[in-house]
Design a protein that fits this description.
Blueprint lengths: L18 E3 L18 E5 L10 H6 L10 E3 L5 E3 L18 E2 L2 E2 L15 E6 L6 H4 L2 H18 L8 E3 L19 H41 L1
Parallel strand pairs: 1-4, 2-7, 2-8, 3-7
Antiparallel strand pairs: 3-4, 5-6
């Protein structure tokens, strides 16, 4: 059976760019009977050129990959989803010999809960290379990543901080992406921008609720006056 799922982001999340469903090969994902319960957001670069040739979605649809990711932000702002949020993508480099937490050998992140990291996180590949992502991260691609961070933080109550928004390299000793240690990947600024967007969304939601309450009170007063 071909792997399929419903998109976990709204179609207009990255407007004017597209949200695209591109299912991974079913043998490149899974939690061996365990669902994914997102507690963190892990950022990657796929080590492919930022050249509008989207290699990563095609590769994760290939049975040879033996790996996957939930999302992929291409260099012109489109957002691909390859694995459903509820499924465990094989993304975080969880082999015990390579495992660490920000330099502490064999340590687990605070959100791990004694479960494989793949089943406690959502992952996104950001088209580009760790060594050059600081130069190639285009404004539209950056906005897509920020919108994704804000959306998933709100959706799963994931704090937008450096313990819960992390790089692949901070979980696996054999990885160098997305370029945090190299100083090329602006993770702090992306988190700050996502916080600001998240606050704006929350403020708008509160404003809508207040307007709704105000309208309900006004209608009740009008009914009361009509009866007097």
């Amino acid at each position: 059976m071909t792997y399929d799922f419903e998109l976990d982001v709204p179609a207009d999340l990255v407007t004017p760019h597209q949200v695209i469903k591109a299912p991974a090969f079913e043998g490149n994902l899974g939690g061996y009977g365990r669902p994914n319960v997102p507690r963190a957001l892990v950022l990657h670069t796929p080590e492919e050129d930022a050249d509008q040739n989207e290699v990563t979605p095609r590769w994760f649809a290939d049975p040879r990959a033996r790996a996957s990711t939930h999302y992929y932000a291409d260099d012109d702002g489109d957002l691909y989803q390859m694995v459903a949020d509820v499924d465990c993508a094989w993304a975080q480099g969880t082999h015990s010999g390579n495992r660490h937490w920000k330099g502490r050998a064999s340590a687990l992140p605070p959100w791990n809960e004694g479960v494989n990291n793949n089943c406690r996180a959502l992952s996104i590949e950001i088209e580009g290379r760790a060594a050059s992502i600081g130069r190639t991260l285009a404004p539209s691609q950056r906005r897509t990543v920020v919108r994704w961070l804000a959306r998933k933080s709100a959706q799963y109550d994931i704090p937008l901080d450096r313990d819960h928004v992390v790089g692949h390299e901070e979980l696996a000793t054999n990885k160098r992406d997305p370029g945090i240690a190299l100083g090329t990947f602006p993770i702090g600024r992306l988190i700050a921008e996502a916080r600001a967007l998240h606050l704006g969304v929350e403020t708008a939601a509160v404003s809508r609720e207040l307007r709704s309450a105000h309208d309900a009170i006004r209608r009740a007063l009008e009914l009361l006056e009509a009866r007097l």
